[in-house]
Amino acid sequence: MNMLATNNWIEANQRYLTAALAVVRTTVECHIVSTANESSADFQRKQKTEEQRSAVQEALQEAASAMPQPSTVETLCTVFGLSPFERDILLLCAGMELNAAFIPLCAAAQGDATKAYPTFSLALAALPQPHWGALLPDAPLRHWRLIEVDTGGVMTLNPLRIDERVLHYLVGMQHLDERLVGLVQPVQGGGELVPSHAVLAERITHAWTQATSSAMLPLVQLCGNDLASKQAIAAAVCNALGLRLYKLAAFAMPTSPGELDALLRLWEREAVLGGGALLIEYDELDATDTTHTKAMTQLVEQMRGPLVIASRERRRFLQRPAITFDVHKPTLQEQRTVWQRALGTAAQPLNGRLEGLVSQFSFNASTILATGVGILGQMAPGDDAAAIDEIGSVLWEICRVQARTGLEGLAQRIEPAATWEDLVLPELQRQVLREIAAHVRQRHTVYETWGFAKKSSRGLGISALFSGASGTGKTLAAEVLATEMRLDLYHIDLSAIVSKYIGETEKNLRRVFDAAEEGGAILLFDEADALFGKRSEVKDSHDRYANIEVSYLLQRMEAYRGLAILTTNMKNALDAAFLRRIRFIVQFPFPDAAQRAEIWRRIFPATTPTEGLDIGKLSRLNVAGGNIRNIALNAAFLAADAGEVVRMRHLAQAARSEYAKLEKPLTETEVGGWV
Questions:
Q1: Over the stretch 600-633, which tens digit does the pLDDT of each residue have?
Q2: Smallest Cα–Cα separation from 281: which of 229, 337, 242, 341?
Q3: pLDDT tens digits, 565-587
Q4: Of 27, 21, 88, nearest to 60 (Cα)?
Q5: What 3-state class would DSSP assign to 568?
Q6: Fold match between 184-326 and 420-588?
Q7: Strands 276-281 and 322-326, how do they pair?
Q8: Which of 3.40.50.300, 3.40.109.10, 3.40.50.1010, 2.10.109.10 is the CATH number of 184-326?
Q9: Cβ(588)–Cβ(425) below 8 Å
Q10: For residue 223, which of 94, 361, 346, 315 has the smallest C-alpha distance?
Q11: Structure confidence by residue, pLDDT tens digits, 6-35
């Protein structure tokens, strides 16, 4: 309804409610007169009240005919199946709140000034078509908590009160029941859907429209990792059907039977009174949380109103028909279109940047639109090419930061600072690393523009194995790649992720990859030996699940839209069948004397004061690059603490400390003649 029609309906509804209350009030007055002594005065009162009853009935009919749409009284009676007697009980309780005349009326009807309130006893005696069934706990008035009955004493004599939410509904005021506030939250529509999501919304809308005549609407399951897109689809469906959408987090709901039943009744009532639909978010519910899972299953199978489940994976419900849809991120073309809409006229000068953004970052529509608003505030009309280039770089960084939110707490982010100049490796290994960078940069061109993705959907991820002794540059190489491609680098210790509990390792890996997909960050899985040992013979369930976990990790690496790197100190311990599924394998050799000398030449920043350093002597230290860095850093601290420049004696002292840590003897051949 438009504003004028809404105001007209509110006024008409108020008149109807006033007339309905007048009918109930007059009915009680007639009851009072009918039980009085038969004096001439009482006879006149009875005649007068009968005349009033006819008048108020006529006024009610006039008010009903003037309603542009059904009144709240009639709607409530219809949807909850109230009998005429139950309807009058509800109006009697409403009258206590809306018309002061009801207070002395109830006292007079019960012949007791202290009983200035409605009771079942009064209703049974004074209202027409009474029946005891209205008092039952499963009858509409009490089941749906339309009225409240005081406890203690005789049930028929206990005070009755209308529920506050129901009272507000009767007078035409809509608001969420305060007992649901904080437990369920309203979901706002996210605007226009991308075409692939709009198709899903139309199918759901059609399914619910076709099922409106049935006793229970089909449950809708929206599966996938993109919660925002699932919310947007559900909101679009509700908007099309004129429903208000609310969401409930599965982990936040009550689990005790009493509280669960109360929630079910309150929400079902709210769905009717407020035209609401519920979106239950399973995404963050731990699969091992059987208590909440059981409670949610019970709630879902008993609820009859419009209900949407948002979960990563499909869930089975036995007692309710369900339709399931897989929700994916917008396609690359859809993301490109949303970016262009978000950037408006700025999209054209930034056009060359958009392809890179779409290729690297997989955002939903709401994230793209919000990011576009942020970057537009930094652009000015007539910006030159240099300014546009700078804005493009800022936009890339904004996207990087946006994509971090899901991974924080799951993996350790490394701030990459190393460049190719810091990496000392044989040319063959450097060339393979450059090829890895080329695969990441040109992924969109080769797979999408040139069509390789259409030839096969398997193995499109870019995976690499870095093998070598500790300190030989595996992590440094990952940093170089991250710096080169301006991507985030996350370190994941596989030995910490592997769990003794069956299925937990797979769940931990899923969380990491799902979170990383949005930004295509470089994932560095350290200590691959913890999971990728020789394939074990299946002797028990743990062996079987260990092999499943390895296969799962390789499967996710092969499908990951970014670069996933495994590191190991013992390549020979890895199963050859697994190695065949890795696209790149880089062996990091222990540096020889010439390579160690080159590392020493590059290890100190240009701003570090040094004096008398003998690279030839330093290169005799038979340690890897990581140890060389430790020695140089320790020597710098020793020199700074002494107020001196870095000299060979500081390096000798630092070398002794490093060798002691390695439990390795420092020979005279290595440090002879240093000081």
A1: 999 999 999 999 999 999 999 999 999 999 999 9
A2: 229
A3: 999 888 877 777 788 889 999 99
A4: 21
A5: strand
A6: yes
A7: unpaired
A8: 3.40.50.300
A9: yes
A10: 315
A11: 778 899 999 999 999 999 999 999 898 888
